[in-house]
Amino acid sequence: MQKIIKGKVYVLGDNIDTDQIIPAEHLVYSLSDQEESKKYGHFALSGVPPQKAGLPRGNIPFIEGENYQSEFSIIVAGSNFGCGSSREHAPFALQMAGVQVVVAESYARIFYRNSVDGGFLVPLESEGKINQQFETGEQVEINIHRQTITRLRDGQTFKLKHPGDVLPIIEAGGLFEYARKSGMIS
Amino acid sequence: MGMTITEKILAKAAGKKSVTPGENVWLTVDVLMTHDVCGPPTFQIWEREFGEKAKIWDKNKLVIFPDHYIFTADVHANRNVNILRQYADKYQLRNYYDVGTERYKGVCHIALAEEGYNRPGTVLIGTDSHTCTAGAFGLFATGVGNTDAAFILGTGKIWEKVPESMKFIFEGRMPQYLTAKDMILQILGDITTDGATYRAMEFDGYAVHQLNIDERMTLTNMAVEAGGMNGIIPVDEITQQYLAQREIWDYDVFESDADAKYHSVYEYNVETMEPVVAKPHSPDNSDLVRNVAGTKLTKCYIGSCTGGKFTDFYNAAKILQGKSVKVPTFAVPASTEVARRLRKESINGQTIEEILLEAGCVIAPSSCAACLGGPADTIGRSVDKDVVISTTNRNFPGRMGSKKSEVYLASPLTVAASAITGVITDPREVL
Ligand code: SF4
């Protein structure tokens, strides 16, 4: 897995639930069919109310027009990211849209597990609400190994929390890879 | 040191003498449940990852209920049910409850209870966040995603971080205007939607043990709305009676030790509590019903795994009998078993189904229906700027359909009282 990730940040608030990440009406598409699963990227974050989409200004679409990939590869949000349903379609939709890392103050348990075990994206936790320190569209750099996020306009670095026991699963790229490496399954 | 019920169950499932909160353990799973939205991708991941050798660890422990997108013309949704059917056929899965057959049940969490899969002391994992509902039977139940479920399908194992436990004690005698829904909405208001993240929520006290199984399932159902990993209620005679009716005798009853350690303890007295709502757009945005009384409504909804059980309709019918609804009101029995009981059991010589129909409710066939919005042709779905009062569990923006709509969550008593007036109404006004 890549240890340093650089990209444009998309900033969100607290309690971004799974219906905002991928509205329930879209859950009918195939996750395994390559063409059809692009729909998940296209509808990623389409449930976020416009004024809260792309803070601090708002009204910044995550996906432009008919695209299924976003120009933003990093999300910085507040607390309780991914609360709501157990749908794995949520981290999958973000991955399809090109998101590699989410930094949030806290996560709902199932979203966190899904992100890690499915290897869809890397969920990292910040100390406090650092989403207020970033503007949608600016360049940031994340160091997964050292757990930091840096605001490139002025070089300010924020320390993120260590993922604890799940780091080996994150580094393996998902639960199955981890289980194969550690000999649990063949 | 003492352990909580949750810790004891996890220790047993991990094959250890004891466990401590924060520790990661591998658990042996007793039941894996899935449905039409997450079942197909779970099987697909399992086939992809285990390849040629893919083998279901224990077919008897796999339970599948199509329930989410059932009565719709949406081709993609129907394709999902078809895929499930094919897997059930290919692998001869006898715990598959196909739609369109006598076996069709409806909403998974209620069906699990009715079909006797909820056994005290076991570990039950489901691909649905409200899997925590089953904790009403004194077992460890929690929701996961497709990858975790696919892993269980092949190995029967799951890793879990042992949660700290929070205890919620309710004392007093239940007033007739209060329900379990008011109790859990009160807790949500007090601890917020992430107040129990990665923790177990244990419910106890005289008032909890006075509740029937339906009502207990309302408490544990919404544990996930507070971020809880699981909700759990100690087994008592009411639990044992329910199981005995289904001829289930083989299970382990665990109790929390007197010196078990809790993250926090909350105490309530139901006698001083009042009916509660959650205002738009979050289940923790709670307020007393009387503070929002008079709010104009365009729709009422009684249904889902939270508020579509037999007791929920019984409560609503007590208020609806002999009255007519002022706004469109939808009644969706969670399961076909609930629907059957509505036709059989009566109040003052009238069946509950008759009471609902006479009051002008639209009764829809059992499924998740508009609880999660669903495809555009879903019955009861919120449209445009609807203002809805509902017995369901979530009111995030767009959850019941339209992003512009506003949803209030409340007890079946409050929803029924509001249906006959057309505005949000405290059930004490009409009882
Ligand atoms: S009724 Fe609603 S909350 Fe319950 S399982 Fe169905 S969609 Fe989920």
From TrEMBL, chain A:
InterPro entries: Aconitase/3IPM_dehydase_swvl, AconitaseA/IPMdHydase_ssu_swvl, IPMI_Swivel, LeuD, LeuD_type2/HacB/DmdB. Residues 66-125 form the Aconitase A/isopropylmalate dehydratase small subunit swivel domain. Pathway: Amino-acid biosynthesis; L-leucine biosynthesis; L-leucine from 3-methyl-2-oxobutanoate: step 2/4. It catalyses: (2R,3S)-3-isopropylmalate = (2S)-2-isopropylmalate. The lineage of its organism: Bacteria, Pseudomonadati, Calditrichota, Calditrichia, Calditrichales. Keywords: Lyase. Signal peptide: none annotated. It comes from Caldithrix abyssi. Pfam families: Aconitase_C. Heterodimer of LeuC and LeuD. Catalyzes the isomerization between 2-isopropylmalate and 3-isopropylmalate, via the formation of 2-isopropylmaleate. Belongs to the LeuD family. LeuD type 2 subfamily. One of its GO terms (molecular function) is 3-isopropylmalate dehydratase activity. Its EC number is 4.2.1.33. This is 3-isopropylmalate dehydratase.
